[in-house]
Amino acid sequence: MSAAVEGERSGRPPRPPGPRRSALVAWCLYDWANSAFPAVILTFVFATYFTQAVARTPVEGTAQWGIALTLSAFAIALISPVIGAIADQGGRRKPWLLCFTVLAAFFISMLWYAKPEPADVLWALVFLALANLAFEFSIVFYNAMLPDLTDERRMGRLSGWGWGLGYAGGLVCLVIALFGFVDTDTPLFGLDKETAEHVRAAAPLAALWYAVFAVPLFLFTPDRPKTGLGKAEAVRAGLKALGATLRNVRRHKQIVRFLVARMIYIDGLNTLFAFGGIYAAGVHGMDLTEVIYFGIALNASAGVGAALFAWVDDWIGAKRTILIALGAIILIAAAIVLVEDKALFWTLGVMLGVFFGPAQAASRSLMARLAPSGMEAEMFGLYALSGKATAFLGPALLAWATTAFDSQRAGMATVLIFFITGFVLLIPLKEPSPNAGNGACR
Which of 23, 173, 340, 352 is most enclosed, with most CB atoms within 10 A? Predict the structure, then answer.
């Protein structure tokens, strides 16, 4: 099928010959790069270190960690759609992506200075929030590049491969953190264990990982050309376009339904990610080394799941893939909250990881298929908003339940509410068929 005919059927402008394989690999490699932050900082190493060593108590540290992520989520929700709409008017994505990548790496590296004492709680939380802010902004423009790199019938595979590579990146970075710094008698570079330098080193490691492996995207993956608008014009046009989108939201009913459903279930996923290591340490008595081993196992299973379900996405559709993943997560997460045995917790955790990747990768490919041509960055800005507009609810509800019942198990149980609600809201969605190539809805 010619590019012109396919473009006409899909509602997008004719697509020029696709980018080289090296450009696609470089794009996927950005997932490998940025995965160090959620895996090493948000979930396993630094999150556990903060609650166990920096904060006064694990319960207090859990609540403080949740508050910091909540505040950054508010800023992400407010700003992401605006910068996305402005970027669509300017055309290019990579300058924005470069800016936020550099900022994220810098803020992550500053966590090195958070020593194991309560006086450094504020320092750690401020730079955690700033790093999360820059990280999420970078993802807006990274995701917005997806529709320009492949057609609707292959978006599931490219998105899934990216997620799979991302989990692999998090896995390798965790292994380096574990055997190079945390679980060794002689940490690299002669780091001092008395001041937890061997654990704090996870921050500069994650920052360097992010910065170095992001480079291929900027070298090999093509960007959209400039539209010719100046910066001031792009800002005005972007704000105007975003306002028009919000005023005419009824024209995008399927997108709205998807974003609302995703807003709920991704809150559950993000909360699970942010507090998974903390929960393992507090409820099952895992020390930092064991939490990292658990993180390695979880990332390995998640990477396999994302890669395998990439074909399922293009075969049966992103919506059905998400529903399968959410259904499995609900059942397994409920069991995890109830189990007392650590070995069984390990087994269920690895099973749970298999469905993390598909839920996220298929969400990205579904948004790419639903986004109108020329509005990708704006739509992925709204996509980011949907991931953060209620992001305070997950950590806040978990923190409240943890404090009210003096139980981390009770706090973690609250994530089930988000998965079940998102599952139900997604069921009526009509999505473009990835196999028809004509934008027909299922």
Answer: 173
Contact criterion met (CB below 8 Å) for 65 and 59 = no
Tell me if residue 160 falls in helix, strand or coil. Answer: helix
Question: Tokens 């074909």 correspond to what residue?
Answer: 311
Residue 26 is predicted with a pLDDT of: 95
- 144-160: buried (b, 16+ CB within 10 Å) or exposed (e) per residue? bbbbbbbbbbbbbbbbb
**Residue 307, helix vs strand vs coil:** helix
pLDDT at 245: 63
pTM: 0.76
CA 327 to chain centre: 20
Phi, psi of 151 (to 5 degrees): -95, 175
Handedness of CA 199, 204, 209, 214 (dihedral sign): positive
Q: Angle formed by the axes of helices 155-177 and 202-220, to 10°? A: 150
Q: What does the pLDDT read at residue 9?
A: 39
Model confidence pLDDT, tens digit, residues 174-199: 889 988 998 788 888 888 888 999 99
With vertex at residue 121, the alpha carbon angle to CA 186 and CA 273, rounded to the nearest 5 degrees, is 75
> What's the pLDDT score for residue 10?
43
| pLDDT tens sequence across 307-353 | 888 888 888 888 999 999 999 999 998 898 888 888 888 888 889 88
User: Which single residue is written with the structure tokens 């499995």?
Assistant: 328
pLDDT of residue 132: 94
CA 318 from centroid of its chain's CA atoms: 17
> What phi and psi, each to the nearest 5 degrees, are found at residue 441?
-90, 150
Q: Are 229 and 109 in contact (CB under 8 A)?
A: no
pLDDT the model gives residue 27: 93
Q: Which residues of the chain have pLDDT under 50?
A: 1-16, 435-442
Through-space distance between the first and last CA atoms of the chain, rounded to whole angstroms: 22
Cα–Cα distance for residue pair 323/325, rounded to 1 Å:
5
> What tokens were used for 313?
């996405």
The secondary structure of residue 40, as a DSSP letter, is: I
Helices (H), ranges, 178-252: 197-200, 202-220, 231-247
Domains and CATH numbers, the chain: 18-426 (1.20.1250.20)
